[in-house]
Design brief:
Helix content of chain A: 40-55%
Distance between the termini of chain A: 36 Å
Structural class of chain A: alpha/beta
Number of helices of chain A: 10
Radius of gyration of chain A: 23 Å
Oligomer: homohexamer
Shape of chain A: elongated
Largest interface: C-D, 62 and 62 residues
Number of strands of chain A: 13
Strand order of the largest sheet of chain A: 7-6-12-11-10-9-8
Order of helices and strands of chain A: HHEEHEEEHEHEEHHEHEHEHEE
Largest sheet of chain A: 7 strands, parallel
């Protein structure tokens, strides 16, 4: 679903052990066969499973069992089992565990938020580009496995005008004059404008924008504004970003908007996983 | 302090905008001069400032002001100001902001934890290798700027025996027989053993280990154990890992251990920063 | 506008001269100062100028003059002038020349096609992702400088259903049932369907698709179909791809479609440039 | 024959789909098994077949059939067949197709030119380093599979003196004094000089050069000059570069030169290939 | 034991043959099957065997026999045998041979030095970071296979104060005041100080340093100093660096120090290996 | 002369200090200004000076003095002086020193061998591709600065037939039949054959080879063979490889061959350099 290049996965391995694994070397366990098992410690939406498995395969181990990304598993479920040289398993252990704990945390929290939305509406949960630099691939895989969609992957794919653009071009009136030209030039894209007030949204809609992204508008006010805007501009898309939490997401999902944008899932509590390495009889 | 290679910083830029910045292109702001300012929204321990500045320099902008990493600043402080082409500033905006928000969050929380420890003790806060794969450099810079020290950077530099090693070699008795040989072979390193109980620690200390890393021992019990162990083995180092929180860190800092190990600062709440881009008269 | 990472430009230099420049070395010209000048041999729309300049800067030379990408210049115009060590100029010569000749050829041909369209219509020329693998950045910069827009940069940013998708899901009827769900899920994107016939387009439009991409439909037929489709679905976007040439592009531009998609500009005749290296008095 | 590093091929895949394949994801075809077939639409000299196959293997698909690079195939021939997950095939489709279409175009045109030469002479067709930067490996593989040879791969391997060198060292008289020293220093290499006139060539030959590369001399004149030069310098190699086309290549091949140098094959019309993706019963 | 990333090994292959293997191509041996055998020409301690094998596997050949790194073999022993296409074997030949000859030379010499030490003492041979830049991984693997240990892998893992640090902080008295603070801050590390004289060492030991690294002290004097220092500071570690040779290493090993540091093994005489490529009947 | 990409130099820095410089950090010298000086300890032919300087520039230091590569300097000469932050100088210290010591050792020994040859003959010293994998660029720069020439940079640039090729094609008779075809196909290259005996050389010369590379033939015998071969084939080039040492190189240089090939200079004794870091008054 997301393609991780070989060097991306190898870089994670190399980061943690650029040279010898000193402890394994001093203990002399390099030639022993062993088995590594990873189990959940609470219900978890899985992600990055295929990449965790590849870490061990790259290190020469063999994958015996690997649950699929996107799957929901209970507590105490075996999700990954690999066999190989003891030093290879020790080398991959924390890298795979860190990867899975952080990203399954993201996927699990995303799934909880998505499920709240889905319980009251068919609109999507959209996740922003506000993640740690360098982490776009794992984060996007995690939110997709959590049932959300990427809001915008970056600057090259969508048209979204922020206040910081308006400062440069001379404000919202100047923008209104440009919208038709932008729609023509980028006829395959939707033109989106960030708005803080109903008045700004009315102006943008009148100028022909395809989509309004409201920023930090409370759900009740948003419900009213959306109704009013959709009445006069039935094809207008409206989404809300900023201030969405587990507590208010259902209210937002029922506000009449077409999508809910948030970033906070990237910062979800990591999942808790147990990892055991046991000797194998050769 | 930490050296980021050119391609590491350029990869962050490229990740967010692999091709054109479509919005800036359609708005036609590419030739305009502008100024970008980043301000804090709460007291913050800064980090990754030099790297945020490099993002803009690589994009051809000029740094007018850049506060230093490691500095404490109040709310509403201008920490970075750059001037350049409007499209360059828009391209660097979110990359720099994401970098600073996540990592200053880590540094600020680390500083709070370090300061709690320092208020009662001279022992160090030690931060583990349990971070998102690929993020070691920014995370280590952040915790150093937060006043902590790296616990172990990875497998190649320190000797730390876990339960998962003991499983392979045949348990703690087998380990005890190996400690002297390990100390001789790695005479420049300290040999560290993870222990759960006082009995395990007594055995390891008797066998000559340099350092005991206790895992998830409550502070009161730890205080007693440490006193007992230090009495019989005055040169033994003792550190505690697992279960350390803002609520109990002072108690741990007074328990007599030589260091406190934790990972949770990597997952600190991101800092909140405000970014403004304004036109410049050429 | 497009950001080329340092290693991308350095790789071009390294590709042509992985080790010593044997001829310059044997001639002993390494310590001499010289000036390199690049002139056009016919009217040219410039592109990749900034990257050509960077090639020489990376090699330690100094840029004296560099015309801007996007500019139209006449024949016999000096577009790039650099001074530096003779061996540095020789090393950069063909790399910069090849880059400029191929890509300015693309930009110039794109500009000619764009200008044909613009002479009769306000719709955009859209250029596909059908370029040599590895060449996306220079090619996209060239077509942007030629006044066209990228059609889709790749698979991650737009939704475009081809016949090869329909084969998998069970044909156009199956697709029709999915369109509303796709529109909801990707509410910030337009859903686009490739069609060969009016009937296919009618079905897709009725199912709610945002955009029809016709494949290889003659201009006259396209004009009729577009009129008919727009009457019943006024918000529907229609674009045409396949078979657009310099001879028929005006007819397509007047067919009522919202955009014209083509790939052939990537394969434009390279521009012809003259490069001279002359000694400088130190 | 040419070794493509893993990251070179993976970069092509990543360029086209840096994140999710949005269309395949929204259509939900990720778990379906499918078969991709590539057929020729005209007689074609194949090249880059092994690399196209590797694209799919890297994506986890299995190669069922792959014709060899260097082979001549008729129209409507199945040249590549792979089976795998539908989303993997969609991800590799255009990358492989673009690679094959551009490069098989180069190989096919090279084969046509080579065959024209071979019909009247045993001399080689030599292809220059004047290709798109970054494309040396695929281009060289294509011209080798087309039956030509690389003229010079770059600056580090051969000695070829151009006018732009002469400008620096003080002209052809200065060069003549250096040729013996260059021959001694680089005794394993041939010393080559670009010449425009017979007089220049006579001077270079008299000074001991191993090879004359004439630039844009018409075939008739070249025939006469070659005869004259070979009479006085029987060991002298003579090659012609510049202005060679399909129309005149036979005349050049009969002019008495030892090789024909050209660049235009790099810009051959891409081959036309048909790609079909069909579902497989699991 | 040491993990070499795919691109690290592929870079070696690419360095030697960036494009076609011209000789094999002209000889037309690309489709022939062949077998490559590598034999020792003197008793050798093997290393980098797994990486040499990977070179050929990456090139599509199959490994028939591969002796293990760390093994001692006699003269005239077959250590690596692979079968594959003749051009693949020719491409890997010198790369693998150079790798093995240089590094087995290092391992063999290290083994000789280690064995001298082991004949009189249980202390380790410690090898510095003074190797060719870019060669850390192969060199560390070679010295580990030679029975030595890395002294310090680099700046990020150990604390070692040199004269060039003392110049900056104001000399040894200034250092003495800092040692306790350094020991607290880096409680998991040993604090090491380079000393030239007994007096310097006494001062450092009194200040609480964990380890003294003497620089170029003759063995007899070192024996006396070590005895004196250990008497007053029984837990103090002492190591010697500089001036250790095959002639005096036993004397140093008996001097009472805890480890012997040297760099010269990196510069050991390369091993001599014979490589044969023979045709296989298909 | 040789172009080192930014990431190549940055990788050297990163290899030695992947994270913080722990000693400098604990000593708190990061904000101090300092000066680093490198002096020779014996007469030295310099090389890699520009790259050593770039190491410090990349780390933010300023180069005050840098002697040129290729220069001969006496003992106790200041060859590099940089000023900057103390921690930057400490970080670059050993990386630059290792680079210079190993490679200046190569250059100095090459210069000695070249000068021996030059004292009796005008023929070149040619250095093989038998270096540590990954070290081609620094090694080739070093031997060029030592006054030698690269023998062959790798497989892609020259045609040299070894015994291991003959095994595949069926021996020397088979080769003789192929030489004319090879000469035609690669008309810009010299065809070279490795020979052990006069008879083999006679056969190759008769078949038209351009160059004979004798392997390990004693100088006296070589002198006789060369005279005999040159008499019958005056244009034939002859070079000798294998067994050339400082003791016999003059004899070989007078044997009548056209070039002397060796590898041993890559393994020259490293140069000895002194490095001092001193504080600067800010």
């Amino acid at each position: 679903m997301i393609f991780f290049q070989t060097h991306e996965i190898e870089a994670w391995i190399n980061e943690d052990a650029p040279m010898v694994d000193l402890t394994s070397h001093l203990l002399g366990i390099e030639q022993q066969s062993a088995e590594l098992s990873i189990k959940t410690r609470h219900p978890t939406r899985l992600t990055l499973m295929e990449e965790a498995a590849r870490i061990f395969e790259i290190l020469g181990a063999r994958v015996v069992h690997c649950s699929h990304s996107g799957q929901d598993v209970d507590s105490d479920t075996l999700i990954l089992q690999v066999v190989g040289r003891a030093d290879a398993l020790h080398r991959g252990w924390k890298v795979a565990m860190n990867l899975l704990e952080y990203l399954c945390g993201v996927a699990t929290h995303t799934a909880q938020m998505s499920s709240q939305v889905a319980s009251v509406s068919a609109i999507p949960l959209l996740v922003t580009r506000k993640h740690l630099p360098g982490m776009k691939k794992p984060m996007i895989k995690a939110i997709l496995n959590g049932g959300a969609h990427p809001h915008r992957l970056g600057l090259s794919e969508t048209v979204l005008v922020f206040e910081n653009h308006l400062n440069i071009i001379g404000g919202r009136d100047a923008l209104a004059h440009k919208i038709q030209a932008m729609k023509h030039a980028a006829c395959e894209k939707k033109i989106s404008i960030e708005c803080d007030t109903l008045q700004q949204a009315e102006q943008a809609a009148a100028a022909g924008t395809d989509l309004i992204q409201f920023d930090k508008v409370p759900a009740a006010k948003l419900t009213a504004w959306t109704a009013q805007l959709k009445q006069s501009h039935p094809n207008l898309q409206i989404i809300i970003a900023g201030g969405v939490t587990a507590d208010n997401v259902k209210a937002y999902a029922q506000s009449g908007v077409d999508g809910i944008v948030l970033s906070s899932v990237y910062h979800a509590k990591p999942a808790d996983l147990g990892v055991t390495i046991q000797p194998l009889q050769d």
